[in-house]
C-alpha cells in the first residue's frame, strides 16, 4: 500500500485542479488501521458477533422475556421422570423453549445462556480491566526506568507466566470462607473471580507494554520532552501512554477470550460462579454426566463459549494485523 | 557449561523458595486476611466437629498462633526434613518430603500424590507427543505452502481449536467415535488397554495445544524464512529441503521447544480440566475433590508439586537452550 504522510499545507486544491488527481490526505494511524480492518472480512465478522454478544448480554432480560421465560423458573413437568431427560428428545426444544431446557429441573436454556453471557462477559471484561491497569502501569514503569526496577518486575512476570494458575486459583478460591472482605454469596464470588483472574493475567499485558516502552524510550520525542524538563511521570502518562494505545487495545481484545475461558474453566470445576447464577462453564459441568442421553444440554453452552471466544480472537487477530506497521494490506 | 548449570540450579532453588512462600501465603495467610481466626483455620485443617478445648490444642500443636515467619519456617523444614504432628491422641510422623497430613483421610499427603501421579504422567506424555508432532507438522506445512488450501484448512482448524475448551471437545470426541470408556488402566497391567482408554483424553487435550503450536510454528517459520541466513543459504546453493528443515525450522523450533517444556511441566502438575471431564483419577481431580471436602493439606500438596514440576521444566528448558544455542552459555 502507499503510505501518505501528513502534508504540510503546501498542497492547496484549487477550483481548477484536475478532478482525477487523488487528493493527498493525512491519515492517522487509527484511520489507516480502520481502513485495513474494514477489508478483513473475518475480523469484521468477529467484530459484529462481539457487538451482538454484548447487546445480548445487556438485553438478557427483555430478550428472554420475548420467549416468555426467565432463567430461574423450574419446569419440572417437561422432564420425563423415567429417563431424567426432557420429553420428546432434542433436549426439550419447543416453541416456548427455543434452546430446550436444562436438567434436572427444566429451566429454560435460552434465557440461561443469555444471562450466562452477561456473567461471562462481565467477569472477563472487568478482570481484563484489572489486568490492564496493573499490566500497563507496571509495564510502563519497568520499560521506562529499566535497571533494577525492570529486573524485579520482569522476574515477577516470568514467575506468574510460568505457574499453574488454574491450581493456584482453585486453591485461593477454595480457602476463602463463605463471607470475607465484607462480601458474601455471589457478590463475593464475582469479586474474587475478577480479582484472581485479573491478577493472574496482567503479565501478558505487562510484557507487551514493557517491550513497546523500551522501543519508544529512545525515540526523539521522548528525548525532546526530557530535555524540556518533563518529569518521568509526565513523560509516561502524556508521551508514552498515548503511543501505546494501539497495542494495549489489541492485547486487551485478545485477553478477553482467554479470561472468558479462565472463568468458564473455574466455573466448570465448581470453584467459579455457582448455581443458580447461570454460567456457561457451570452449565457444561452439570450437562456432562447426561451428555450421552441429552447431548443438547451440553452443546448449547459449549457452542456459546466457542462462538464467543472465536469471535474475540478473530477481532483481536484482525486488530493486530491492522495496527501492524509492517503490514502491507 | 557446568557453571551455567550450577547457576540455573541455584536460581531454581530460589524459585522453589518463592513457590513455598506463595503456597504458604495462600493456605495460611490469605484465610486470616479474609477474617478467619487461628481457631477456625485449625478447624478447617482438622475437621469441623471439634470442641473448643480440642481446637485450642490443635492451634497449639500446629503452631497456628506462632508468628507467621516461624510457621513458614516449620513448613519449609517439614518439606525437606519431615515433621511430627499430634492429633491429641497419638503422634503422627510425616516423613520427608512432608507435603502435609490429611486429617480427612488420616494419611500423609505425599503417598497419595505418588499414587495419583502415574495417571497424570500418562496423560501428559501421550498428549504432549501428539500435540508437539501434529502442531509443528501442520505449522511447517502451512508456512511452506503459505496461502494453499492445506494452509487455509489447517489454520482454520487451529483457529477453532484455540477456542474449544477441553471439557467441550472431550464429550464431542466421545460422541463422534462412540467410545465412552475412559477409565484408567495402569500401563504395567495392560499397556494396550492403557493406550486405548487414554486415546480420547489424549486427543482432547492435545487438540487445543496443537492448534496453538501450529499457529506459533507457522509464524516462526515465516519469520525465519525472511531472515538473512536463509537468503544466504539459498544464495550459496543449498538445496531447498535443507534450507527449510536444517536452517529455517531449526531456528523456528527453539522457542517452540521452550514453550513445550513449560506446557508439559504445567500439565504434569495436573491436567485439571481434562481429568475432571473424563473422571481420570490424576493429580488435578485429586485437587478438585479435596477442595470440595475442605481437605486443604492435599490441595496444598498438589499445588506445591505442580509448581515443582514447572520449576524442573524451567531447568530442563534452560539446559536445552544452552546446548542448542552457545550464546546463552556465554552470556
Automatic annotation (TrEMBL), chain A:
Chain ranges passing through the membrane: 42-63, 119-145, 157-176, 188-209, 240-262, 297-316
Membrane topology term: Multi-pass membrane protein
Residues covered by the ABC transmembrane type-1 domain: 117-316
Pfam families, sorted: BPD_transp_1, OppC_N
Major location (coarse): membrane
Keywords of the record: Cell membrane, Membrane, Transmembrane, Transmembrane helix, Transport
Location(s), subcellular: Cell membrane
Name of the protein described by the UniProt record: ABC transporter permease
Organism whose genome encodes this protein: Actinocrinis puniceicyclus
Automatic annotation (TrEMBL), chain B:
Localization of this protein: Cell membrane
Transmembrane segments: 9-30, 119-141, 153-173, 193-212, 252-278, 298-324
GO terms (BP aspect): transmembrane transport
Assigned keywords, A-Z: Cell membrane, Membrane, Transmembrane, Transmembrane helix, Transport
A GO-annotated cellular component: plasma membrane
Keyword Magnesium: no
Sequence ranges assigned to domain ABC transmembrane type-1 in this UniProt record: 117-321
Family the UniProt entry places it in: Belongs to the binding-protein-dependent transport system permease family.
Protein name: ABC transporter permease
Species lineage: Bacteria, Bacillati, Actinomycetota, Actinomycetes, Catenulisporales
Amino acid at each position: 500500500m502507499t503510505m501518505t504522510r501528513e502534508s504540510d499545507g503546501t498542497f492547496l486544491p484549487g477550483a481548477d485542479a484536475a478532478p482525477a488527481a487523488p487528493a493527498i490526505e493525512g491519515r492517522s494511524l487509527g484511520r489507516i488501521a480502520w481502513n485495513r480492518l474494514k477489508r478483513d472480512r473475518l475480523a469484521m465478522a468477529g467484530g459484529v458477533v462481539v457487538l451482538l454478544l454484548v447487546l445480548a448480554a445487556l438485553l438478557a432480560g427483555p430478550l428472554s422475556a420475548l420467549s416468555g421465560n426467565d432463567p430461574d423458573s423450574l419446569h419440572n413437568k417437561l422432564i420425563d421422570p423415567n429417563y431424567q431427560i426432557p420429553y420428546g428428545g432434542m433436549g426439550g426444544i419447543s416453541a416456548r423453549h427455543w434452546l430446550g431446557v436444562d436438567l434436572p429441573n427444566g429451566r429454560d436454556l435460552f434465557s440461561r445462556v443469555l444471562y450466562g453471557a452477561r456473567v461471562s462477559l462481565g467477569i472477563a471484561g472487568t478482570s481484563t480491566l484489572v489486568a490492564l491497569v496493573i499490566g500497563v502501569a507496571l509495564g510502563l514503569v519497568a520499560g521506562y526506568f529499566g535497571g533494577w526496577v525492570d529486573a524485579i518486575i520482569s522476574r515477577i512476570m516470568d514467575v506468574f507466566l510460568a505457574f499453574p494458575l488454574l491450581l493456584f486459583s482453585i486453591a485461593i478460591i477454595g480457602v476463602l470462607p463463605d463471607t470475607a472482605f465484607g462480601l458474601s454469596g455471589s457478590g463475593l464470588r464475582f469479586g474474587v473471580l475478577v480479582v484472581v483472574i485479573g491478577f493472574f493475567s496482567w503479565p501478558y499485558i505487562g510484557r507487551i507494554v514493557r517491550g513497546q516502552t523500551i522501543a519508544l524510550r529512545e525515540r526523539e520525542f521522548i528525548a525532546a520532552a526530557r530535555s524540556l524538563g518533563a518529569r518521568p511521570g509526565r513523560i509516561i502518562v502524556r508521551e508514552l501512554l498515548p503511543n501505546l494505545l494501539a497495542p494495549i487495545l489489541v492485547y486487551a481484545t485478545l485477553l478477553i477470550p482467554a479470561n472468558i475461558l479462565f472463568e468458564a474453566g473455574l466455573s466448570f470445576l465448581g470453584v467459579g460462579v455457582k448455581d443458580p447464577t447461570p454460567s456457561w462453564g457451570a452449565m457444561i459441568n452439570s450437562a456432562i454426566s447426561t451428555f450421552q442421553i441429552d447431548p443438547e444440554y451440553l452443546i448449547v453452552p459449549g457452542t456459546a463459549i466457542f462462538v464467543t471466544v472465536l469471535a474475540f480472537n478473530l477481532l483481536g487477530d484482525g486488530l493486530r494485523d491492522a495496527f501492524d506497521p509492517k503490514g502491507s494490506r | 557449561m557446568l557453571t551455567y548449570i550450577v547457576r540455573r540450579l541455584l536460581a531454581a532453588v530460589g524459585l522453589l523458595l518463592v513457590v513455598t512462600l506463595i503456597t504458604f501465603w495462600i493456605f495460611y495467610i490469605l484465610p486470616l486476611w479474609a477474617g478467619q481466626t487461628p481457631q477456625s483455620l485449625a478447624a478447617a485443617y482438622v475437621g469441623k466437629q471439634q470442641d473448643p478445648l480440642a481446637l485450642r490444642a490443635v492451634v497449639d500443636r500446629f503452631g497456628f498462633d506462632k508468628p507467621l515467619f516461624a510457621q513458614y519456617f516449620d513448613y519449609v523444614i517439614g518439606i525437606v526434613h519431615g515433621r511430627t504432628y499430634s492429633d491429641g491422641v497419638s503422634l503422627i510422623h510425616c516423613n520427608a518430603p512432608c507435603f502435609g497430613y490429611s486429617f480427612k483421610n488420616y494419611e500423609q499427603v505425599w503417598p497419595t500424590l505418588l499414587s495419583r501421579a502415574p495417571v497424570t504422567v500418562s496423560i501428559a506424555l501421550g498428549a504432549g507427543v501428539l500435540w508437539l508432532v501434529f502442531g509443528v507438522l501442520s505449522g511447517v506445512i502451512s508456512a511452506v505452502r503459505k496461502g494453499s488450501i492445506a494452509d487455509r484448512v489447517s489454520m482454520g482448524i487451529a483457529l477453532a481449536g484455540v477456542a474449544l475448551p477441553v471439557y467441550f471437545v472431550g464429550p464431542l470426541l466421545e460422541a463422534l467415535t462412540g467410545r465412552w470408556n475412559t477409565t484408567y488402566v495402569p500401563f504395567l497391567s495392560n499397556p494396550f488397554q492403557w493406550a486405548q482408554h487414554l486415546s480420547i483424553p489424549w486427543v482432547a487435550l492435545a487438540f487445543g495445544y496443537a492448534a496453538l503450536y501450529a499457529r506459533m510454528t507457522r509464524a516462526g517459520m515465516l519469520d525465519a524464512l525472511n531472515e538473512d541466513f536463509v537468503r544466504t543459504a539459498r544464495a550459496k546453493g543449498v538445496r531447498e529441503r535443507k534450507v527449510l528443515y536444517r536452517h529455517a525450522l531449526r531456528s523456528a523450533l527453539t522457542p517452540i521447544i521452550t514453550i513445550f517444556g513449560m506446557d508439559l511441566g504445567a500439565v504434569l502438575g495436573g491436567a485439571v480440566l481434562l481429568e475432571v471431564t473424563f473422571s481420570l483419577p490424576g493429580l488435578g481431580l485429586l485437587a478438585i475433590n479435596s477442595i470440595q471436602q475442605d481437605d486443604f493439606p492435599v490441595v496444598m500438596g498438589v499445588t506445591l508439586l505442580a509448581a515443582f514440576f514447572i520449576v524442573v521444566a524451567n531447568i530442563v528448558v534452560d539446559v536445552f537452550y544452552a546446548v542448542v544455542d552457545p550464546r546463552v552459555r556465554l552470556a
